[in-house]
Amino acid sequence: MTELASTQPCPVCASPTRALGVKQGGFSARAFMLRQCQACAFAYVANPLENYAEIYDEKYYRGQGPDAMLDYLGELEHPATTVRQYEWRGIQDIVHSLVPLTPHTKWLDYGCGNGGLVRHVRAASAAQIEGFEEGWIADQARGHGIPILTRDELAARAGTYDVVSAIEVIEHIPDPVAALRMIRTLLKPGGLLFLTTGNAEPYRNKLLGWSYVIPEIHVSFFEPDTLARALTLAGFRPELRGAMPGYNDVLRFKILKNLGARSTSFVERRLPWPLLCYAADKRYRVTAHPIGWAV
Ligand SMILES: [Zn+2]
């Protein structure tokens, strides 16, 4: 068994991987084994939970699960005051800097959670956007009139999208290349995949100490070169664009979320955001990840 584990191939590039160590779940009483590829640096939870319906339940989306910082219901019910609006605005600006947003632009937000980005983009741009999500949160979003596709509806739209976004999605998926290949089938040739996920590179030799490693839910960890390789394998041309217009708003949301702030306020609006975002990105390098163009 030990022998088998020591030769486990990398889920991205199939090269040999090595054990990084064990991380105790903070929410479940379970030990998770982390491994890393010696060729592409992909790091992953080798024994992930797979009972998705139980993990991503109502409690999870209410912030009563492994990620206590989540406030999906609050964001759905209070879009004008949630700090999440900075992320929505930032993502729209980033995508708009790469692709024209016209009435003919078809955009899918894959793994859209509560559909907040979908609702924001529908109100603030001309693009046609819809979301894909499953489970309890998808029904909540539909209840607010947000168009959330089922898996069958999504399959029927293969090859029709100009843009797919996947915001903090890929780290939840144990086979990320398969997920990227599936997303590739949804796009037109030349279409854009914009995704966000944590950057493992600043934590290269201390991955177990990275707060992003919440092993019940986050199971796949990428450095920018690793993500570029995965994108290439899935039929994308990766491109490094760095800090695009809008990224400061995405960073602003991340900083506020990690501070535990849920609503915008007079106080936070007075903070020197360009400086704070510069400092945060210098440390966490979230803007270093590539985007993907469907080949
Ligand atoms: Zn690898």
List keywords for this structure.
295 residues; alpha/beta; Rossmann fold; binds zinc ion
> How helical, in percent, are the residues?
25-40%
Count of beta strands: 11
Spatial order of strands in the largest sheet: 6-5-4-7-8-11-10
CATH architecture: 3-Layer(aba) Sandwich
Shape: globular
CATH homologous superfamily?
Vaccinia Virus protein VP39
- Our count of helices gives 13
Strand proportion, as a percent range, falls in: 15-25%
**Gap between N and C termini:** 40 Å
Largest sheet: 7 strands, mixed
Task: Identify low-pLDDT runs.
Answer: none
**What is the overall pLDDT average?**
95
Protein described:
A seven-stranded mixed β-sheet has the order 6-5-4-7-8-11-10. Strands 1-2-3-9 form a four-stranded antiparallel β-sheet, with no helix packed on it. It has helices at 2-6, 52-55, 58-61, 72-77, 84-96, 116-124, 136-143, 151-156, 176-186, 224-233, 247-258, 266-269, 273-284, and strands at 17-24, 31-37, 43-45, 106-110, 128-132, 148-149, 161-167, 187-196, 220-221, 236-239, 291-294. With 295 residues, the protein is α/β, with parallel strands linked by helices. It has one domain (50-197, 235-294): Vaccinia Virus protein VP39 (Rossmann fold, 3-Layer(aba) Sandwich). Helix 5 (84-96) crosses helix 6 (116-124) and helix 5 packs antiparallel against helix 11 (247-258). Strand 5 (128-132), helix 7 and strand 6 (148-149) form a beta-alpha-beta unit. Zinc ion is lined by residues 10, 12-13, 15, 37, 39-40, 42.
